[in-house]
Amino acid sequence: MQDFIQEIHALTVGGVSPNDDFDKTQLDSTSRRESDASNMTDVASPYGTPERSKLRSNTIKKTEVTRRQHLRRLPTVASATAPTVDLENIQEVSPPITFSEWLFDYFSYYCLIPAYDSKGRRITWDQFDASDFNEISFLRNGLHPKSIVITYFDVITVLAYIVCLAEVPFIIGFNSVLPDSYGEYFSVIFTIMFSIESLVAISTPNSQIGKTTIYSIREYESLRPFLNLWIREWLSSYLFVDLVSIIPFSAIVGSDVVWLRLLRLLRILRLGQSISRCAIFTRVKLYVEERIGVVSAKILPIGIGIIVFLHYNACAIFYAGQLHGFLGWSQFWGQNQTVTVWDSYLWCFLLAVGNLFPMSYKPQTKMEQLFAILFIFVGAGVYAVLVGYISSAAISVDNSGRLYNQKMEELKEYITWRQLSNETKDKLISYYETKYRGKYFEEDTLLGEMNEALRTEIALHNTVDLITKVPFLRRSAGDGRDEIFYARIASCLHIRYYIAGDCVTKEGDSGADMFFILSGKLDIVIGGEVYKSLYDGAYFGEVALINKVLRTATVQAKMPSVLYRLTYQDFHTVINEFSDIKTRIMDLALERERILMQVAAMATEKRS
C-alpha cells in the first residue's frame, strides 16, 4: 500500500497526471535525456529544432566504468539525482579497472567532455546529468572543441598563426640578407605544426552556433555534427586549403620562388575561429572589456591590424629595393650596405609608417614607386577606418550587440549607484545574460509592428515542439483545425527567465499554471530533498492547469533557465473553442479526482 501511495505521489510531482493518457515516464525519461512519448532531444534551441544532441544517451561504449571513474577522480559535486556522494564508499565497492579503462577515462575527461562555457568559465559538474558521461565516444562524437586539451591546443595554434603571419612576409622580403637555414627552419616548423593542426581539426566537429556570444553548453552541443558527417564536410571544404598551406613548396621547387611561401597564409583564415572558440582568449577579451570598456576594446584589433599592415609594407619596400640593388637608397640612407638585417627592417618599417602617415620618403625605382603608391592609397583607407572606428566603432559593427553592451553598462552603473552587494550583482548580470544572450532587441515592439499571421508563425516556430511533447495537448483530428489549436496555445505562452536559485513553484502553494522548459536545468524538491531534475524540452505543472491544486513539489532553477508559462485562464479560454480537447481535459480531471480519492481512502484505512 505504501508503495502504491509513493508511486501516485511520484507521478503527480510537478503536475504529472497518473492517467494512462499521460506520459508516466516523463520524469524518469527526462533524467535519461530523452522522452519515451515524444523522443525529444535534450536541447530545445532557439535556432530551430535540433536534430541531435551529443550529450544524450545514444552512444554507449563505457557506462558504469566511466561513471565510477568520474566520481572517483572529479571533485565531489551535489548531484540533482542524489544529494550527496560518498566518494570513499564508491572507491571501496568499485571493482578494479584495467589500464585501458583508466586511459579511456582520462582521455574522455580531457578531450571529449566540454570544460568551458560561452564566457570561458569552467563548467561545473552539476550542470550535467549522470548519464551525460556514460555515452561519450570518440568515434561518434570526435574531440570536443570546448575540452581542456583542445582549448590549450587552440592557444598554441593561434600563436603559430601569429608567427606565420609575421614570418612569411619577413622571409620573403628579406630573403637575400637572411641565412638560408632561417627560412628552412621555419618551413619545417610550419609544415609540422599545420599537419598536426589539420589532424586535430578533422577530428574536432565544430558547432554551428553562429555569432551568438552567450549560449548554453547544450545549445552548443546540439548544433555539432557527428564525427562522420564532420569529416565529409571537412574534406569538401577545408582539405584543399590545408594541403596547400602544409606543402613546403620552397623546398620542392627551390627557395628562389619565394612568393610560394605566401600560400602558408591561407591557414590564417582559421585564426578568427580558433580565437572565438578558445575559452582563454574569451576570458582575456572579457577582462579587457571590463578594464577599458567595450568600445575601447573594439579599437584594439584595429590598432593591431595597422601594425600588421605596416609590417607587410616594410617587407614589401625592402623586397622591391633589393630587386634593383637598392638603387638610390644611399642618398637618404648611407648605411644601407653595412647594417644588420634588423636595422634594415627597422628602417623599412619607418618608411612604411611614412606611407601610412605623411612623410618625406621618395621611392627611386618604378617598382618602389608602385608599391609606395599602392600602400599610400591603402594606408589612407586604413587610416580612415581607424578614425571611423574611434568615432562610431560599436555602431558600425553590431547594432544589437552594441545595445546589449550599453544595457549591461547601464546595469553596472545602476549596481554601483545603489551600492548593491556582489551577490546581488552576480544575480542581476546572470538574469540579463539569460534574457538577452548577447543581443538586445525590443522584441515586444518588433512583434507589435507585425500582423497577427506573422506573430503566430513566430510563436509556433518557437514553441510548437514543446507543445507537442505534452500528450493531452496533441491534436490530430484532421478537421483542418489542428494547426489553429497549436497556434492558439502558442500565442498564450509567455516567456519567463530564471537564474540559479530561483523558485518557479513552491511546495504547498496554490498552482494554476503549466511551464515548458526551453533551456536550462531545474530541480524538483520534495521535503527539502532533490527528487528529480528536468532539462530542456521537459514540462511540469500540467495537473494544476487542468484543475487548480496545491503544488506537490518545489521546482527550483539549478542553472539559468528559460521557460514558457501557460496560465489556467488562457488555457481554458482556448479549449472552449475545441470541444474534443475540452472533453479530454474533463475526463482527465475526473480520473485524477478518482485516483486521489482512492489514495486518500487507502491512507485512511492504513491509519485505522
Automatic annotation (TrEMBL):
This is Camp-binding domain-like protein. The keyword Transmembrane helix applies. Pfam families: cNMP_binding. Residues 21-36 have a biased composition (Basic and acidic residues). It comes from Rhizoclosmatium globosum. One of its GO terms (cellular component) is HCN channel complex. It comes from the Eukaryota. GO terms for biological process: regulation of membrane depolarization; sodium ion transmembrane transport. InterPro entries: cNMP-bd_CS (IPR018488), cNMP-bd_dom (IPR000595), cNMP-bd_dom_sf (IPR018490), K/Na_HCN_channel (IPR051413), RmlC-like_jellyroll (IPR014710).
